[in-house]
User: Fold these one by one.
Assistant:
Number 1:
Amino acid sequence: MLNRRLLLSGTGALLAGCSTAAPPVSAPPAPVMPAMAAPPPPVAAAPAPGAPLDTTGYDSFLVALRAEARRSGISEPTVRAALGNIRPLPRVLELDRKQPEGVLSWEQYRDRIVSQKRIDDGRRAYADNRALLQQIESRYGVSARVIVAIWGMETNYGGNTGGFNVVEALATLAWEGRRAAFFRKELLAALRIIDEGNISADKMTGSWAGAMGHPQFMPTSFERLAVDFDGDGHRNIWESKADALASIGNYLARNGWQTGQGWAMEARPPGGFDIERVDTDTKRSMAEWSRLGWRQADGGPLPATGTEATLAVPTRSSGQVFLGLPNLRVIRRYNSPMNYGLAVGLLADRVA
């Protein structure tokens, strides 16, 4: 059971949609095609487990991709190293097509994510990297606990950063057709990252969808927000904890993190509150929420301040409700689901 204490401490805030790491859930509507327009590329069928993949058209796709990379300024050595011998990955297609088997309730999700093991591992990660984290917090104004919690959520503190070759995975998804434009853009960004000398093609590993390194940045997010915190001339979120953790801090800072502010507090609603018809858009000061009958989860009064908050209601919750501060919205810029943002906030409050 989580400690239901006030979560407004100056450094008690936490993460969550770049999504940085996740591609769109579904493709946008297809544009209306003019008469005689070329048909869209065929969608590669996901193979049954163990069945060979039909790679018809992949070689032609690869020839065109190499030509596009050269035209965009990617050097010939990078084209050869990154695109020389790649093949489509059946496992990537299988994972891309796989639908979730079930949806956890908020309470199940919360207790699975904010587990005692993840808390204990987070405390060790915080202690082991305390000096570095203090430097990052000083530079970007973002709570070190939030940074550690995001790290824990995304890759289990660097223990599971993904074992797919990012270029090969993105090329597979760009070839298969359903979300080709999105993944082709990410693929070209990945090639630029290699070409700049940040990482070699063989060491650019990540998730099946192309999310990379300790913070699980997609390549376009890397280009905008990754930093060279250790000063070695490379932005290496795979092998440098300094670069990886500082990149998380920079991501949140650039998205409006408010230094010294919390992320939310668990609250008790007044009588007659209907969780199914909640308004999550209206901002009110804590003093106003108090006048409407809201209290802290333990029954104590809300702080009589002008700090604005909105209702933050977990998905599939049996009743737990929070008053979300602006930093919760910043967390959800990293990964948008409400349950993710709340869980990271709760984890951040427990890791140090």
Number 2:
Amino acid sequence: MKAYFFQIIILFSTSSLFAQETGEISESRITSVVDSSNADNLVLKQFFTVNVPLDSVWNAYTTKKGWESWATSIAEIDFKVNGVIKTNYNKEGKIGDESTIVLHIINYVPRRALTLQAELSTHFPEFMKQDEKDMFNMILFEEISPTKTKVISYGIGYKHNEKYMSLLDFFIQGNEQSYLNLISYLESGESSVKY
């Protein structure tokens, strides 16, 4: 079940602060902030800078090769507005089986922004599945220099209640591991975790 969460965790990525140092890539590369200023909802904001050109980061999020290099074993991408990103952590699995994760591409602005929404499978708690229509991940891409890119992820749709609060640490840690994996892949050509 944990592997399924890691994929979806990327999606639900601002006044309590949760910042943690993780992974082999040091300097606490990822900052995580939970915003509870809206009484009913929480937004998980996570951001990091990676030492590669913007196009490399964009390709990691929008291509089959990109997803399979840092996020999942198998990916199938139909990259367009109302398109889908289908993934599977199981190397022996296939797209379409029960372990497939489906991310809907709500909209995008090339090399600037990407909004995703997950179809939550049976592997997720019922209370999350009931809120599925409210959950989005907005990812912003900012070119800092020709060789440095900032990524900001907003996980939108967490409810401000005990059930979600108990999951936030899990989501934060999982997202941070995924982002460290992305940074490792982009900066060294090797992801830190193999799926």
Number 3:
Amino acid sequence: MAGRRTSKRRAPPWLAPLVAGIVIGAGVAAGIVIGGHIPPPHAPHHPAAARPPAPHPPLSPARKPAAPVSPNHTVPAPSIPRQNPEVSQGPAVGPPPEAPPVPWQGRPRVAIIFDDAGYSMRTAREVMEIGRPVTISVLPDLPFSTAIAQEAPARGVQVILHLPVQPDNLAIPLGPGGITVDMSDDAIQKAVAADLATVPTAVGANNHMGSRGTSDPRVMQAVIEVMKARHLFFVDSLTSPHSVAARIAQQMGVATAVRAVFLDNQDEESYVRGQFHALIKIAQSRGQAVAIGHVGKVTARVLREMLPEFDEAGLQLVTVSELVR
């Protein structure tokens, strides 16, 4: 009997790839378990098909890089009002006084008051650098009220209190130390005294806003009583044609004057120059005039530039205390 012939059977051709696939799959699975991720396969590099980088989103205003801060940086004071909110109440050029002008000898005189001081030393010093007698009116209880009141007289600038008085528009904030028509006489007098304490070198006062308060005889009498007791004068800023401030002051024997010209209802050089020219003509015709401008505007610079015109017109700049009567 012939013996059975044995031969080695070949593995089918598809088996080797299958086994290799199983091995590779097991390795990948192990990598997921151990490493937590599969490294991405290296795709061929095709520069033409490369995706451009995504643009950076624009910074919002809140995220813009801040400007460099000076080592001497300090928190700024509240901003200076850019215009008188009462300009529509009182004309920029006031009417002539009811009483006949007092005869004068010599040169016509002009007193210029710069209102709204107290927010900034820099703007107050612009007035102090004019080099002629002028008056600065300081709002009470602001960051620089007392410092300005102390420095200005040493530099030849007269100081008065810029007394906040209630306007017709009740939406306009008075700021610290304001006088309102619903206050009692005693409350008004205490408020005025407290305001003066923050402007210790004041030799008088004028009203800040006040179209409503200065038209109320009771309110103004309470204010003027403090002026009289302290031997101070009061200048009517004439923010309303209905103001009784000057009349009450005269009746109570307190020296007073009335504003003739608002210089800078518009903070523009050409406008301010025109108002100064109007002031020159009024002073020449009346013998004297009181004008009101504001710190922080072009007014101080324009005045310095126009001083030769005042001299050529024969006018003398004086402090406002020299024109009250």
Number 4:
Amino acid sequence: MREVTFQDALEIIEALPEEQRESLMEIVRHRLVDERRERLAQSIKEAKEEYRRGEFKKGSLKDLISDLEK
């Protein structure tokens, strides 16, 4: 099976009737939202585990910005 390029996908989508393209956009949009929600939930779960294990730092906003600049 050959790999589909981004351009191939666009051409396939453009060949669909307008109603199907709109449905496809809604489906993709919802899937992206779901993926982001899952990543956020996983990040929260990991942060809670780190907190439970005592693996967190306390500090000011200045400390945070300093750590981010490293």
